[in-house]
C-alpha cells in the first residue's frame, strides 16, 4: 500500500509512505480487502501525521514496464474455464470472491464458486485424468473437479438464488446429477 502526493497525471506523484502485505495462498479478494481497509487506515493516519509535522519525505515512483491496466469485468469473463491449470483456476476463484464471483454451470444452472483449494498433483483422486470439468464426489463431503493438470477441491459455493454454503451443505440439499460442469 502506498500513499503519495497527487499530481496532474495519474499515479505520478512522489510517494510518502509504503507498507507491504503478504497474501495468503487461499485468501480471497474479499478477505484481502478487509485487511487492506484496516492497515490502509493506519497508513493514512501515519501519512497525515507526517505531513502535519513536516516530516513527510516524497520519493519518486519507479515505473515498471510490466504494469498493465486492469481489464473491465463482464459476466462472461467470470465463467471458469476448467481446461486451465488448477493453480490458475484457484487464483481466479480467489480473485473473484466474494464479488462478482467466479461461476460455472451445473445442469444448466449457475453455480458461483466462492472458495477452493488445490489438491497436490501426486494425490490419486482418479487415474488417468478425466476431461476437464469432470466431477468426483462422495455425495456427502467433497467435490473435486478435474482441470488441465490436476484436481481442485471446491470448498464454498452459491447456487442461483441461494446463500453461500459449504460443499457439505450443498451436497446435503442437492438432488441433481454430479458428473460434469458445463
Give the gist of this structure.
This protein has helices spanning 29-53, 86-96, 167-173, and strands spanning 2-4, 15-18, 102-106, 109-118, 135-137, 143-146, 151-159, 165-166. It is an alpha+beta fold.
Question: How are the SSEs ordered, and which strands pair?
Answer:
Elements: E1 2-4, E2 15-18, H1 29-53, H2 86-96, E3 102-106, E4 109-118, E5 135-137, E6 143-146, E7 151-159, E8 165-166, H3 167-173
Antiparallel strand pairs: 1-2, 3-4, 4-7, 5-6, 6-7, 7-8
List low-confidence stretches.
Answer: none
Fill in the CATH topology of the largest domain: Methionyl-tRNA Fmet Formyltransferase, Chain A, domain 2
- CATH class descriptor name of the largest domain: Alpha Beta
Shape type: elongated
Output the CATH homologous superfamily of the largest domain. Answer: Formyl transferase, C-terminal domain
The percent of residues in helical segments reads: 10-25%
